[in-house]
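One-letter codes give the sequence; the fold follows as tokens. An example follows:
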Amino acid sequence: MQEERKCLSPGERKDLIELQNMATKDKQDLSEEQKEELLQRLANNRIHKATSMYSASLITFPYEWECTAIFFVTPEYINHLAQPTWYGSDNSLNFLQDVLKIDPGEVSRLFALWECTCNQNTSELDTLAVVHSQCVELIQTGLNCLLNNGAVSMNYVNYKTAIVQTHKVRLVNWPTGLKFVNPSFIGTVGDIQTLRNSLRTSKYHWEKLKRLQQMAHKLNLERCQEAGEIVGKPQKQRSDAGTKCK
């Protein structure tokens, strides 16, 4: 085929049928060893493409953004040719060993195991305790990320005052028919799975209140209080309330 290519004039091309015929002829002229070598090169090339799925931009962006980062990348299914891997800029991987006391390879292994099993045998994995924990974590993480403040804790009892009124954020699209409570108090697997799935797909999510929404919420709270309704749960009064400090 290379000799045929040399005979072509500049700009001249072979059509698909001609190329296929040339490839067939070349294949017939190959020895068994040459065929095996070509097949091995093809297999190696496929593996290289699969294992090179990790974009170089992931490695370069920490330096461009002047930040330190750790990446863990894993295939989505067990029989994938790519292998789990990780990357840490500068000496960031030392954080795992120095602070968390865990090897990056172990984290990568656990990450791969989680990814390959999270969508399998869900009926066995989704116990009440597991999904309770997942929902609580998803709600808390979403709140902290939106506020960019990890010190704020979710308050389900006084949600309207301690969260919505104070921080000007709210949860949107709580599953219909499901009472708004701490997920740990939801007693059936089906209900807690519905909540968890809504959180994972971002159907149920946090959002910041606009100015008019803030005013409407404040007005609604005032009306409820004027009507004698108890909004949330009042804090217990201290036993020494009203006494002067010595």
